[in-house]
Structures are given as structure tokens and as C-alpha cells.
């Protein structure tokens, strides 16, 4: 049997091509850009998650720290801070809830394609052979955990509800008076729209809406929801990146306010 290191013996009637692929375009740009983008977010979010500081500037709370479930959370009046973890928790409160949104994105169908191709080269691009000698798919640890994606979807939906609550709270001023709106409010509004759009465009959500239905005509409501989610699903990749950027941008904006880099411009 031929190995990856030597030319494969061509079958009868096929051209003898020694090259691993015949692509002459810059096919490596896409996986390289994906590596750069994902690494940038991982580095930034890791720094912010372990910082345990500058994540609240009334009335804004960083989405990385919401909900804040430890006793060592910053005092957020009316915010999502429920001290379920006592004073024994000494680490950053962001680490408590981090696994749920992280698990949802790691098991997401688009992100699987993204990091399989960019980090593992499996395969690095269409019509480009992967460097691995064997392929086991998602049948072994840790990739078998990707089969839990549908369950992470429910957790992600709960988190989106909490972030929606945070966005409503941004219609207050720094003294917690209602009926005000700042630049941060707009940033949080854009973020929550993108977060919901990405969450609902998930393949698992599409299956929940219309999966296992034999007759759409008998389920008109689910059919309409399935059509709407299917349209979002066609933009799943774009929404995945847009929501990732908006989450980082929202956290960065709160950080800049909390460190007194500038004041939140008030619209009314």
C-alpha cells in the first residue's frame, strides 16, 4: 500500500500524477486567516477571563462575566450577579460559566470545519490532501464530545437570554436611572442581535424546528420557523465571526470604561 510520503500507484486508466494536489491558487490564505482570527480571540478572551477586574462599568457588564455567580463578583446593582459560589471560590468568576458558551462554539458545525482545516489540516482545503495517515472522524476522545452540540445549544440559548437582560439594563445611566442610552447601549444591542442570530442559525436549532417532520403542511408554525431558521443557517459562518467579534468588542468597551480611558458618550 502506498504511503503519504511516496507517489500513489495510479489505477488503470488514470493519469500518473505525483503531486499531492493541482491547486495553483493561494488556497492556504483561508486556513491561515482562520488561525490568526481564532488565535487572536483565544488570547484576548483568556487574558480577560483570568484578569478578574475591569469587567463592570455601570450600567454595563462584560458578556465574559455574565452571569457572575461568585461571591467575589463586582457589585452590579440589578445586574446578573447571583452569589451561588461562596468565598471559597478565589478564581475569576468568568471561569464558572465559561465552559458553556465555549462548548457551544467548539462543537458548532462551522467552527469544527474552521479549526479542523486551519489547525489540524484535516483537510487544509478542498482538493488538498491532509497530512494524516489515518482518519477516525469523531469517534474518539476528544472529538467524540462534538456529538453533544445539541445539548450545548440549549445552554447557549439560556446565556443569550441572560445577555438580553444585560442589554435591557444598559438603558440606564451610571446612577441606575432608567430612560437613558449611551454608545455602549448601541454596542450591546448590536452584540445581542448577533448572538441571537448566531445561536438560532445553529444546525441543531434548525433540526429542532423542522426535524423529523414528515408533513410540513400539518405543522404550519414549525414550518415557518424552519424556513426562517434555514435562511439564517445559510449565513451561519458570517454570523459566527460577527458574533465573536461583537462579544470581544463589547468586553473591550466595558474594559475601556472601567479603566477610565474615556467616558461613555450619552445619546439621551
Question: What does this protein structure show overall?
Answer:
The chain is about 50% helix and about 5% strand. The chain contains nine helices and four strands, in the order αββββαααααααα. The chain is globular.
Which key terms come to mind for this protein?
49% helix; single chain; mainly alpha; 268 residues
The radius of gyration is: 23 Å
The pLDDT mean sits at 88
By DSSP, the count of extended strands is 4
How many H/I helices?
Answer: 9
Spatial order of the strands forming the largest sheet: 1-2
- Structural class category: mainly alpha
Measured distance between first and last alpha carbons: 73 Å
Give, in order, the helices and strands.
HEEEEHHHHHHHH
Summarize the amount of helix as a percent range.
40-55%
Low-confidence stretches: 1-5
**Oligomeric state of this protein:** single chain
User: What form results from the Cα inertia axes?
Assistant: globular
Strand content: under 5%
Largest sheet properties: 2 strands, antiparallel
Amino acid at each position: 500500500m502506498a504511503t503519504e510520503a511516496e507517489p500513489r500507484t495510479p489505477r488503470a486508466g488514470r493519469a500518473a500524477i505525483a503531486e499531492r494536489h493541482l491547486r495553483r491558487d493561494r488556497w492556504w490564505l483561508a486556513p491561515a486567516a482562520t488561525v490568526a482570527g481564532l488565535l487572536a480571540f483565544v488570547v484576548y478572551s483568556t487574558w480577560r477571563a483570568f484578569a478578574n477586574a475591569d469587567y463592570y462599568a455601570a450600567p454595563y457588564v462584560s458578556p465574559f462575566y455574565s452571569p457572575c455567580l461568585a461571591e467575589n463578583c463586582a457589585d452590579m446593582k440589578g445586574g446578573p450577579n447571583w452569589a451561588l459560589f461562596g468565598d471559597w471560590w478565589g478564581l475569576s468568576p468568568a471561569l464558572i460559566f465559561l465552559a458553556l458558551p465555549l462548548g457551544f462554539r467548539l462543537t458548532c458545525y462551522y467552527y469544527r470545519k474552521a479549526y479542523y482545516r486551519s489547525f489540524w489540516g484535516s483537510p487544509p482545503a478542498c482538493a488538498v490532501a491532509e497530512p494524516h495517515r489515518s482518519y477516525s472522524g469523531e469517534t474518539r476522545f476528544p472529538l467524540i464530545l462534538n456529538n453533544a452540540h445539541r445539548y450545548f445549544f440549549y445552554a447557549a440559548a439560556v446565556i443569550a437570554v441572560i445577555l438580553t437582560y444585560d442589554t435591557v439594563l444598559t438603558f440606564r445611566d451610571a446612577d441606575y436611572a432608567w430612560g437613558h442610552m449611551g454608545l455602549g447601549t448601541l454596542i450591546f444591542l448590536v452584540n445581542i442581535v448577533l448572538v441571537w442570530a448566531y445561536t438560532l442559525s445553529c444546525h441543531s436549532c434548525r433540526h429542532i424546528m423542522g426535524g423529523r417532520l414528515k408533513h410540513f403542511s400539518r405543522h404550519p408554525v414549525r414550518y415557518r420557523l424552519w424556513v426562517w431558521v434555514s435562511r439564517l443557517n445559510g449565513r451561519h459562518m458570517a454570523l459566527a465571526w460577527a458574533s465573536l467579534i461583537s462579544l470581544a468588542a463589547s468586553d473591550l468597551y466595558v474594559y475601556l470604561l472601567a479603566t477610565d480611558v474615556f467616558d461613555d458618550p450619552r445619546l439621551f
